[in-house]
Design a protein that fits this description.
This protein is α+β, with helices and mostly antiparallel strands. The chain contains four helices and ten strands. Among the domains are: 109 residues, Elongation Factor Tu (Ef-tu), domain 3 (Beta Barrel); 36 residues, no CATH class. The strands form three sheets. A six-stranded antiparallel beta sheet has the order 1-6-7-8-5-2. Strands 3-4 form a two-stranded antiparallel sheet. β9 and β10 form a beta hairpin.
Length: 217
């Protein structure tokens, strides 16, 4: 088998002539739906970068992330196409199936002329019908990638096994707590009314004005 393909020879012709091995050619499709005609494909890939200043030498992976890919495809279907098989309700059926695909809330694959996508979902379906397109379907399909990640549950060891459980231990419910005024003997109950007990002057030397207010002076 030769690895040289003559100029002007297609991949299919090269495979038939034994110049290359079998070639898998993926057909354009949206979740398995093959259009009668694909009018336009619009690809969008965005990197979101922080607008805040970044410290010199910082790891830029902490300040930027890849946004989900976006894709807009304009396709056409006709009741007179070969795919229709003469079905007068062909375009209505196709439109209903696209609506069902969108409503399924399940990610699917998309193959375009430039690249293939995984985990895509339809965000918008748009079509207009007039006197010239009564038996045709010109559909704009907007899709967005779903980024799927794997999470892992980690068990926190008992506090008795930790050197500093107050820093590394799991959070605990301590119930209702009493709040104390700074440097004073007065208290306030969470969810209740604060008691107007004067501050302890030895611990709060700047509380005289506050105590005067509490005592009505």
């Amino acid at each position: 088998m030769s690895g040289i393909i003559p100029i002007g020879t297609s991949l299919v012709e090269a495979a038939l002539q034994g110049l290359i091995g079998p070639v898998a050619i993926l057909q354009r499709n949206i979740g398995g739906f093959v259009a009668d005609v694909t009018v336009r494909e619009d690809h969008e890939d965005e990197l979101v970068i922080t607008e805040n200043p970044v410290e010199q030498g910082a790891d830029f992976t902490d300040h930027a992330f890849k946004a989900p890919a976006r894709l807009t495809i304009e396709v056409g279907y006709s009741n007179s196409s070969l795919q229709s098989g003469g079905d007068p309700d062909y375009v209505q059926s196709i439109y209903a199936q696209f609506l069902a695909l969108q409503s399924s809330l399940q990610p699917f694959d998309v193959v375009t002329g430039k690249r293939s996508y995984s985990n895509m979902m339809i965000t918008l379906l748009h079509t207009v019908t007039d006197e010239a397109t009564e038996n045709a379907l010109f559909l704009t399909v907007k899709l967005r990638e779903i980024i799927i990640v794997q999470t892992q549950t980690v068990s926190v060891p008992p506090s008795s096994n930790m050197a500093n459980p107050e820093d590394t231990g799991a959070t605990q419910n301590q119930g209702t707590q009493q709040l104390s005024f700074a440097g004073g003997t007065g208290t306030a109950t969470v969810g209740g009314t604060a008691t107007k007990t004067p501050f302890n002057f030895s611990n709060a030397p700047f509380s005289a004005g506050y105590n005067n207010i509490l005592n009505g002076n």
